[in-house]
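queue> pop job 88
queue> type: inverse folding (structure -> sequence)
queue> payload:
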């Protein structure tokens, strides 16, 4: 009974436990990649988000569907800037390149 009380008197926050579990299972990078997909609009801004959609990430390459070739060219010109923004939000190496399709 005393051991049971001690265990309860020092609870760990669920976030810390989950973070350690994800790290131990190697899921942190996957979760950060998912964040890039769900936060695409915040990363590129409203205008570019209306004409593009982050679809998937394979081996560190972000694949983005773009509505037209003109917008694809515009995004390609901003590629370095977009990668910098992504890198500021995620661990190093999460996204290595972007392919606009």
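queue> result:
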């Amino acid at each position: 009974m005393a051991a049971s009380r001690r265990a309860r008197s020092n609870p760990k926050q669920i976030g810390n436990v989950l973070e350690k579990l994800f790290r131990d299972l190697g899921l942190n990078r996957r979760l950060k990649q998912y964040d890039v997909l769900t936060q695409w609009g915040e990363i590129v801004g409203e205008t570019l988000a209306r004409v593009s959609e982050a679809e998937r990430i394979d081996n560190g390459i972000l694949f983005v569907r773009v509505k037209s070739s003109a917008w694809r060219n515009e995004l390609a010109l901003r590629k370095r800037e977009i990668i910098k923004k992504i890198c500021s939000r995620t661990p190093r190496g999460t996204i290595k390149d972007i392919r606009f399709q």
